[in-house]
Amino acid sequence: MAAAAASPVRAQTILDLADAAQGEAPILRALRVAAAVGEDPAALRDAPLGRLHAATLGFHTVLASPSLEAVVTCPSCASIVEFALDADSLRGVSGEATSGELTVPTDGGIWRVHWRVPTAGDLAEVAGRTDAAAALFARCCAVTGPGGEGTADAPADVVERIEATLADADPLAEVTVRLECPECSADVDADVDPIAFVWREVESRVQRVLRDVDALARAYGWTEAEVLALSEQRRAAYLEIVREGA
């Protein structure tokens, strides 16, 4: 049996979401977005970050479409490289483990690591800190060197191995797309931030709703609450009448 289509996000929901998230850190905005589509924000806060990203991508699909379109500048020739991703396909990407043990041999001996993937709560805790990356690493990894060294002493090659392990465990936590510049054929890495994508769509939709309210208020003398009480289809029908009469 085919899955039922998700209900459209109501205009009032979009406005309330934007008002509540004004000035908040992106990770907290994303938790609000997840709650708006029926997800449990408390559970997502303690889950791997990729699950929160999947929830925000689901919101983007319901609000606009599964297509994520963006541009990136080629570092070699400064040309603009356009690309598009499918949010629903990204949502199906997941890792197999959320924590584990790792041994990394080096010329100086064996480094032992106990790791877990970062959660949304971890990012919320380190948000705004000047040492956010190091603080996040310390929250999620306990590293012991061959001479008893601690996490802060881990050499660059050990850190790189740990970061690769974390990326494999939660591939949707950080999404990077490898592209080819159409002008100079150089490789271009584009970082995709699901939270930024969905919030841009929220802001765009807020402006669209406010313009609709303004047009109908001017035409019929309705209040904002009266306009927002209309269904999406009914509001669109009235807007069409207003435009035809303009």
The biggest sheet amounts to: 3 strands, antiparallel
Shape: elongated
Work out the radius of gyration: 23 Å
Give the N-terminus to C-terminus distance in angstroms.
46 Å
Detail the poorly predicted runs: 1-5
Give the strand tally: 7
Total of domains: 2
Treating each run of at least 4 consecutive H or I residues as one helix, how many helices?
11
Whole-number average pLDDT? Answer: 92
Read across the widest sheet, the strand sequence of neighbours is 3-4-5
Strand content: 15-25%
Kindly name the structural category. Answer: alpha+beta
**Percentage of residues assigned to helices:** 40-55%
Order of helices and strands: HHHHEEHEEHHEHEEHHH
Question: What does this molecule look like?
Answer:
This protein is of the alpha+beta class and 246 residues long. The protein has a 3-stranded antiparallel sheet. A two-stranded antiparallel ribbon has the order 1-2. The radius of gyration is 23 Å and the shape is elongated. A hairpin with a 6-residue loop joins β1 and β2. The longest helix is centred in the last third of the chain and has 27 residues.
Q: What are the SSEs and their pairings?
A:
Elements: H1 11-20, H2 26-36, H3 41-45, H4 49-63, E1 67-73, E2 80-86, H5 87-91, E3 99-106, E4 109-116, H6 120-126, H7 132-140, E5 141-144, H8 156-169, E6 175-180, E7 187-192, H9 194-220, H10 224-229, H11 232-245
Antiparallel strand pairs: 1-2, 3-4, 4-5, 6-7
